[in-house]
Design goal:
The complex is a heterodimer. By secondary structure, chain A is an alpha/beta fold. Chain A has 2 domains: about 45-200, no CATH class; about 205-370, Peptidyl-tRNA hydrolase (Rossmann fold). In chain A, about 60% of the residues lie in helices and about 15% in strands. In chain A, a hairpin with a 2-residue loop joins strand 1 (about 225) and strand 2 (about 230-235). Chain B is α+β, with helices and mostly antiparallel strands. Chain B has helices at about 15-40, 45-65; strands at about 80-85, 90-95, 105-110, 115-125. In chain B, helix 1 (about 15-40) packs antiparallel against helix 2. In chain B, about 15% of the residues are buried. The chains are: A alpha/beta, B alpha+beta. Chains A and B meet through helix 2, helix 6, helix 7 and helix 11 of A and strand 4 of B.
Chain lengths: ~375, ~130
């Protein structure tokens, strides 16, 4: 009797016929609601980790492909029987320890010394792998190794934070990584483009400043003024201009800061104007190849060259103007495209106008074309 | 340098046939479920769930098959070298060759026999980039 009663109570609680479907959906809804209430963040964390994992996999593929290209390029140029793989792998694990900045006095000198040592070390490694390579090939291969090293470091940093987030299940570590991941992927693609261009020595977008200088100094006598920098005396708009750039066509940045400093010292500050031409990061919405003007030393890098020019220009009270050719991050390290090449033409016209407007006939002007001069001679 | 273009992704005809058969059968099954419900008022929930899942699965597999291979950024763009005469209007555009660089002497001009140089090395821009 009691069994029958309890069964009828349960039956009356459960919906009958057509109501059954609605009842099931209601139940599913409440189950999902409760699961999300308690485990929502955990589910989101797992989904985010999966997304990071797929980007990390892609990053690993890019790193491995970069390493393979670097090794095959060295083998191809070196033509040696010795396998360079172990040496390349050792270079890929290279770590830079930058100078202490607790007491910033004299940091520029220390930083410059470390940069010099680093550059020398990389070039020595290349020379050991490819002993018969000429200067251009050494410079290009050094850049190939730099790009591969960059890819390896990017991969390792992302993998570190991914594993850290997975281990601790820290929502904030994982979210921060996911938020910067699109920019990291863009950077890795830029490295890949740079590596590809370096293997064959094609001019890249960053070399547009050097291209402007190269065209101005073409056919003129050149002399070396600082490490890897050449200068020519070019008459322009009735003024004497000292046009300088890194020595090409190898992948070279040189020391333009030191070169400008030396010319200013040589002329005892009797320079009416310094014009620095360089590629600059464009903002989204701006056109590639657009030319902008400004005041100041437009030299990238860690700041050693910029410091030297600022210091000497301030000493002699020489105005420093900048002519900037706008480019996207990817364009800076990819093979040069026409809009950037046209930007170089427009930049030359702006330089001429700046000289006419800011100096008198007979004055001396320094024009510095900044950038990696890969694939651009002089 | 020694990079070769990646081969196009190959899709098995057997796989296409299997997925197509699964898609057609699941659509027929779904139609039958609705037909039975319309005629007799009986809704076969199990068959409906299975057929919808099969449609979703086969559509997903089709999408995956048509996806382009993963691009890593190492794809070789078309790069052209422009050779110009320093004296006349001679201008020649050819594919980039290893060893080319801007302002490199490119032999005598075929028109006036003066010096010709490489005036530019440019990457061709894809429609997407424009």
């Amino acid at each position: 009797m009691s069994m029958e009663m309890s069964s009828s109570i349960v039956q009356s609680l459960l919906p009958q016929g057509a109501d059954l479907l609605g009842w099931i959906s209601q139940l599913i809804f409440w189950i999902i609601f409760i699961i999300f209430m308690f485990y929502g963040q955990r589910i989101q964390t797992t989904i985010t980790l999966r997304e990071i994992e797929s980007s990390l996999f892609r990053l690993k593929l890019i790193r491995d492909r970069g390493r393979t290209i670097a090794i095959s390029t060295i083998k191809e140029i070196g033509k040696s029987t010795e396998d360079p793989t172990a040496r390349v792998d050792r270079v890929l694990e290279h770590i830079d320890i930058w100078p202490v900045s607790l007491d910033p006095a004299g940091i520029i000198g220390r930083l410059e010394h470390l940069i010099d040592v680093r550059e020398l070390r990389f070039k020595d490694e290349v020379k050991l792998m490819v002993p018969q390579a000429d200067e251009t090939q050494i410079n290009n291969l050094t850049n190939v190794l730099e790009a591969t090293l960059g890819l390896n470091q990017l991969y390792k940093i992302v993998r570190h934070y991914y594993l850290l987030g997975k281990k601790t299940l820290s929502f904030y570590v994982i979210m921060q990584l996911q938020m910067i991941l699109p920019l990291v992927m863009k950077e890795s693609e830029a490295y890949a483009s740079y590596l590809r261009a370096s293997t064959v020595g094609q001019p890249i977008g960053d070399g547009v400043g050097a291209l402007v200088a190269a065209k101005l100094m073409y056919g003129r006598d050149k002399r070396k003024v600082a490490k890897d920098i050449v200068v020519s005396e070019v008459p322009l708009e009735g003024r004497t201009t000292y046009v300088l750039k890194a020595e090409g066509p190898g992948a070279n940045g040189g020391k333009p800061g030191e070169a400008i400093k030396q010319i200013l010292e040589e002329k005892e500050g009797k320079i009416a104007l310094v014009i620095v031409v360089d590629a600059a990061q464009k903002l989204e919405g701006e056109k590639t190849g657009e030319v902008a003007e400004g005041v100041g030393v437009a030299i990238g890098g860690l700041g050693v060259d910029k410091y030297k020019v600022e210091e000497t220009a301030a000493k002699y009270k020489v105005p420093v103007h900048a002519v900037l050719i706008k480019e996207d991050t990817e364009d800076v390290v990819s093979t040069m495209k026409k809009t950037i090449f046209d930007g170089a033409e427009a930049a030359t016209e702006k330089i001429k106008r700046l000289i006419r407007e800011n100096t008198k006939e007979g004055d001396s002007v320094i024009i510095a074309g900044i950038g990696i001069t890969m694939g651009i001679a002089q | 340098m020694s990079e070769t273009p990646s081969p196009a992704r190959k899709v098995s005809y057997f796989l296409i046939a299997a997925i197509s058969t699964m898609l057609v059968l699941s659509i027929v099954m779904l139609y039958q479920v609705f037909d039975t419900y319309r005629k007799g008022g009986f809704l076969d929930l199990l068959s409906m769930t299975i057929s919808i899942s099969a449609i979703a699965l086969s559509s997903y597999m089709f999408i995956q098959m048509t996806r382009k291979p993963l691009k890593l950024g190492f794809e070789i763009p078309k790069v052209s070298t422009t050779i110009q005469c320093t004296n006349c209007d001679y201008n020649n555009i050819r594919d980039f060759q290893t060893g080319d660089y801007v302002l490199k002497e490119a032999g005598p001009c075929p028109k006036c026999n003066n010096k010709a140089i490489i005036s530019s090395i440019l990457r061709e821009v894809t429609e997407k980039e424009k």
